[in-house]
Write a structure and sequence with these properties.
By secondary structure, this protein is α/β, with parallel strands linked by helices. The chain has one domain: Rossmann fold. It has helices at about 35-45, 60-70, 95-105, 105-115, 125-145, 155-165; strands spanning about 5-10, 55, 80, 150-155, 180-190, 195-200. It has a 6-stranded mixed sheet. Helix 2 (about 60-70) links the parallel strand 2 (about 55) and strand 3 (about 80). The protein is globular.
Length: about 210
Amino acid sequence: MDTPTRLYLIRHGQVSNFSGGTYNGHKDVDITAYGVRQMEAIAARLSGEVLAGVYCSDLIRTQRGADIIAARHDGLVPQSLPALRELDVKLWEGLDADGVEEGFPGAFDAWREQGAEYRIPGGESIRDLAGRVIPALRKILGAHDGENVVLVAHGGVNRVILADAMGLDFDHLYSIEQDYGCMNIIDYLPDHAVIRLVNRRLFDGD
C-alpha cells in the first residue's frame, strides 16, 4: 500500500487589522497576540508528529506561524515561498467591502458573475492565484513523498488547495470556510487526495 504524503494545511492566525474587514492581499500585516496563541495551539497539536518540512509564504503573518510550529522540531527551518502569497488585490488593498464598492462600483457583481476569471483591478483572478499556488504545492509534495509536511498559508491559498484536492471548480472557492488559525489535513496518494479535516480551530479561548 502506498504511504500518503500528508499535508497539514494551516491558515495564519488572526491579523492586526482583522476587525475592519480589510482586504490585505500582499500587504504585510502581523498577527495579534490572539493569533500567536492560535498558532501555539497548532504547534502543540503537531509537536508529536514527525514533520519533514514547514513551508509558508514570504509574508509575516504566515512566517510567524511557521516559526512557532517549526520551533518544536529540532533542526526544522521554515521555507518561505513568494508563490504562496495571498490573492493580489492590488487597488483594493487596505479597503473594506464598503470602500471597494465606493471606489469600484459594481465590482462585487462582476466578481459574482465572472467567478474565478474575475481579475481584481491591477491584481489577480482566482484562476491566476491557482496558477501559481498549485505548481508550488506540487513541488513541495514531490519533495516529501510519503512524509508529513506543514504549509502555513492564507485563506484564498488554502481554498485553492482544498478545491483542487476535491476536484471542485474554482468558481465555488468561497463555499469553503477558512477561519484564522484553522487546520486542514489532506492525504495525497498517487492518483487522488483524501480530505481528513477541514477548518478545525484548535484555540478559541480568551
